[in-house]
């Protein structure tokens, strides 16, 4: 019944898969290495809801705390004080254990839950919970001790990548672009062409129409795991006249590498 | 009150609508204060106030029917997104005739406080389009 309710809660918040089984509940809450404590509420002799919680530590105040993993009330029992009773019971356990705070997360689109928590006196702490799991968790664990080349010193690396990009346009260096363009790369060319990665590599393989291409006033802006590199350009046209333009390159951090995902080139 | 665009694609549709309606107030809500714009009128402008004054106010009143062509590329990485594609507008040439003016556009968006905002835009005209292809203002036509 507890596994059923925990899976129903996952369904309610849009998490698919119904991962809980009776064995996992026994192992997680009642085994020798129990990871959390479970409390079950009963109403009229039937299970009406549950909470899972775990002792933690609040580093904001340097004191023990309690983390509420789950709270769930069955649809038939809602509006009858079961949720309040469950949270109050966990609050009592938190105080008994010397905890300074009781904390939990809530899906931001769960308006009913947010209203209920406000009535309990809870306030929103503006943080966003991040999660890495499955294959990505194992990949991250395998990189323990590695230097994060993409973020540790992003600006010098991106400056180098930008210089490589300009140099490789000048020299038609297809191999450099093969190494640094994302699979979903899209180039907006000065002739108005929209070229995917393969099309752009073919363009690069042909000698460009301009020479002496230089970038000036290069500006690199980091926006999360994306970098915007934009600059003014000077070059010599096929007729020998001086030309000027601008470009925007968009780079995305993927794994431990920066790859160029889009470029937009304007030439006057 | 209209809800802010929930996705980059919705952002693009809302921006198209703001341009078509010449709704500068709506456009302002969709760009970050520190945005940078490479435009077809102003070459490079930093800061939203400058973008509105130097680019949008010189272009939006002269164009009609602004929209991106179907299939604009949209990429995302967490709270950042980029959009690239071709766009079309209708303008009135010096001879008073309407024609369709194609161009290309790239945006970088960042989700700040749950709202997608453009932090960079890059617009260009196709080489076949001269700068005069921005077209006349309606007031220009009235004076003829």
Assign the CATH superfamily of the largest domain in chain A. Answer: Gcn5-related N-acetyltransferase (GNAT)
- What's the CATH architecture of the largest domain in chain A? 3-Layer(aba) Sandwich
Question: What gyration radius of chain A follows from the Cα positions, in whole Å?
Answer: 28 Å
Helix and strand content put the structural class of chain B at alpha+beta
**First-last Cα distance of chain B:** 40 Å
Strands of chain B, count = 7
Order of helices and strands of chain A: HHEEEHEHHHHEEHEEEE
Overall, the morphology of chain B is: globular
Helix content of chain B: 25-40%
Helices of chain A, by number, come to 8
Proportion in β-strands of chain B? 35-45%
Strands in their spatial order, largest beta sheet of chain A: 6-5-10-9-8-7
**What's the total helix number of chain B?**
4
Structural domains of chain A: how many: 2
Unreliable residue stretches of chain B:
140-144
Shape of chain A: elongated
What does this structure look like?
The complex is a heterodimer of chains A (268) and B (144). With 268 residues, chain A is α+β, with helices and mostly antiparallel strands. Chain A has eight helices and ten strands. Chain A has helices at 2-12, 22-30, 82-96, 111-119, 134-142, 154-171, 174-180, 197-205; strands at residues 37-43, 46-58, 63-73, 101-104, 181-188, 194-196, 211-223, 226-236, 242-254, 257-267. In chain A, the strands form two sheets. A six-stranded mixed β-sheet of chain A has the order 6-5-10-9-8-7. In chain A, strands 1-2-3-4 form a four-stranded mixed β-sheet, with helices on both faces. In chain A, helix 6 (154-171) packs antiparallel against helix 7 (174-180). The model of chain A is unreliable at 147-151 (pLDDT under 50). Chain B contains four helices and seven strands, in the order ααββαβββββα. The longest helix of chain B has 13 residues, at 8-20. The termini of chain B are far apart.
């Amino acid at each position: 019944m507890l596994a059923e309710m925990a899976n129903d809660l996952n369904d309610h918040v849009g998490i698919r898969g119904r991962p809980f089984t009776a064995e996992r509940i026994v192992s997680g809450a009642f085994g020798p290495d129990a990871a959390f404590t479970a409390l079950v509420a009963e109403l009229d002799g039937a299970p009406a809801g549950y909470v899972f919680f775990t002792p933690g530590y609040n580093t904001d105040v340097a004191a023990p705390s309690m983390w509420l993993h789950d709270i769930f009330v069955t649809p038939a029992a809602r509006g009858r004080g079961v949720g309040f009773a469950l949270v109050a019971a966990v609050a009592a356990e938190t105080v008994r254990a010397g905890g300074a705070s009781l904390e939990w997360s809530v899906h931001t689109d769960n308006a009913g839950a947010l209203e209920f928590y406000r009535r309990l006196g809870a306030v929103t702490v503006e943080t966003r919970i991040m999660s890495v799991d499955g294959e990505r968790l194992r990949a991250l664990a395998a990189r323990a001790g590695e230097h994060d080349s993409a973020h540790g010193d992003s600006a010098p690396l991106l400056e180098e990548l930008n210089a490589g990009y300009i140099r490789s346009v000048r020299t038609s260096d297809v191999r450099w672009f093969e190494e640094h363009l994302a699979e979903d790369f899209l180039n907006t060319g000065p002739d108005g062409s929209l070229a995917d990665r393969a099309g752009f590599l073919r363009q690069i393989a042909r000698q460009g129409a301009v020479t002496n291409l230089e970038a000036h006033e290069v500006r690199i802006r980091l926006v999360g795991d994306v970098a915007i590199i934009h600059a003014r350009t000077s070059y010599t046209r096929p007729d020998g006249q001086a030309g000027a333009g601008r470009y925007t390159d968009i780079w995305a951090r993927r794994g431990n590498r920066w790859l160029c995902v889009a470029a937009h080139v304007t030439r006057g | 009150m209209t809800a802010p665009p929930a996705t980059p694609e919705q952002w693009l549709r809302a921006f198209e609508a703001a341009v078509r309606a010449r709704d500068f107030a709506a456009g302002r809500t969709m760009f970050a204060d520190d945005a940078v714009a490479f435009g077809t009128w102003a070459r490079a402008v930093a800061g939203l106030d400058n973008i509105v004054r130097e680019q949008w106010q010189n272009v939006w009143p002269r164009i009609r029917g602004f929209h991106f062509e179907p299939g604009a590329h949209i990429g995302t990485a967490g709270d950042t997104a980029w959009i690239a594609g071709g766009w079309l507008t209708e303008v009135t040439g010096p001879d008073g005739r309407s024609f369709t003016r194609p161009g290309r556009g790239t945006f970088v968006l960042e989700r700040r406080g749950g709202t997608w905002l453009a932090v960079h835009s890059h617009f260009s005209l196709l080489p076949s389009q001269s700068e005069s292809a921005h077209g006349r203002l309606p007031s220009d036509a009235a004076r003829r």
